[in-house]
Amino acid sequence: MNCKGYLKCRGFTLLEVIMVLMVISILAATFAPSIFKTVDDARQEATRKEMEAIYQATVGKPADGIYGYVGDMGSLPGSLKYLNANPGVPAHNSKHLNGIGMGWNGPYLSFGYSADDYLRDAWGNYYLYDSKTGQLTSQGSDGVQGTNDDLITPPDPVKPWGDISTIVIVADAGNLSVTKTLDDTEAVVWIYYADNGAETSVSAGWDNSIKAFTTQGWSTHPHQGVHAIKAVGLGDYAGNEAIVNVVVIRGTTVVKLFLGIFNLQQDKG
Questions:
Q1: What is the CB neighbour count within 10 angstroms for residue 219?
Q2: How far is 261 from 99, CA to CA, in rounded Å?
Q3: Tens of each residue's pLDDT in the chain, 269 residues
Q4: Which of 11, 25, 27, 196 has the most CB atoms within 10 Å of its CB?
Q5: Cis? peptide before 107, omega within 30° of 0
Q6: Phi, psi of 25 (to 5 degrees)
Q7: What does the alpha-carbon distance between residue 264 and residue 261 come to, in Å, rounded to a whole number?
Q8: What is the architecture of the domain spanning 28-153?
Q9: Are the beta carbons of 242 and 228 closer than 8 angstroms?
């Protein structure tokens, strides 16, 4: 070594090394919690956004005419993986009554480096999914369920369904302003919906208190989305039918179906 002068050749003393380490430790103790909190906050925000995207893929955005997995399949997914992997059901198509589309129409999510990235939160832990309530849970930074840092979307159980009440009317040939509401002895109303992606139909019950065919009181309500409703005449009105598409979101959707023109005054007389 070519040294000129004492100061240029000597190394650090043990005391100097200790002092440097102490300074580094103090700086780390001062700024590390803030840095870690910033990183954790970013992960929390990213997880919230991803959970919201998963929720929307499941139930759609009804206000925008998008009904998600539920609208296509008729129920909540049995597993989160079914949002991007067909669970072995018919592919989506519109070859159903009145052109209603049904069947798996995924993938419903498209972000991340692989098709199943959405199954884990920003901390790398798998989401917990309840297929009965539709709720999604991230166990947060500690990876433990039931602690204060858990994130749950949505906060309440999902209820992606509603009811349909259908009023079937006919008009008088002599005076179209004269109409009649048909009951269950004069017509039957069929509700068409998706059952695991396949088209299914069931007849609505007659409720004399509201003079309508309704799904109110069913144990299973029509899922949100687009449905075909068909009224078929009976007795004097046999051979006549009417079909209309209706959107179900929440609450009760009231539908009026016009079955045709008949000689009501003559029949009455």
A1: 4
A2: 26
A3: 555 554 455 565 555 555 666 666 766 666 556 656 677 888 899 999 999 999 999 999 998 999 999 999 999 999 999 999 999 999 999 999 999 999 999 999 986 667 788 999 999 999 999 999 999 999 999 999 999 999 999 999 999 999 999 999 999 999 999 999 999 999 999 999 999 999 999 999 999 999 999 999 888 899 999 999 999 999 999 999 999 999 999 899 999 999 999 998 665 54
A4: 196
A5: yes
A6: -65, -40
A7: 8
A8: 2-Layer Sandwich (3.30)
A9: no
Q: Which fold has domain 163-268?
A: Immunoglobulin-like (2.60.40)
Q: Is 101 buried (19+), middle (13-18) or exposed (0-12) by CB count in 10 A?
A: middle
The amino acid at residue 118 is Y
* C-alpha of 161 from chain center: 10
Radius of gyration of the chain (CA): 31
How many degrees, rounded to 5, is the angle at CA 218 between CA 216 and CA 223? 85
* Cα–Cα distance, 213 to 184 (Å, whole number): 8
Q: Are the folds of 28-153 and 163-268 the same?
A: no
The angle formed by the CA atoms of residues 262, 173 and 265, to the nearest 5 degrees, is 75
Q: What span, in angstroms and rounded, lies between the C-alpha atoms of 264 and 233? A: 15
Task: Write down the residue that tokens 């009026």 correspond to.
Answer: 256
Note the pTM of the prediction, 2 decimals: 0.83
Tokens at residue 231, please?
Answer: 């009224």
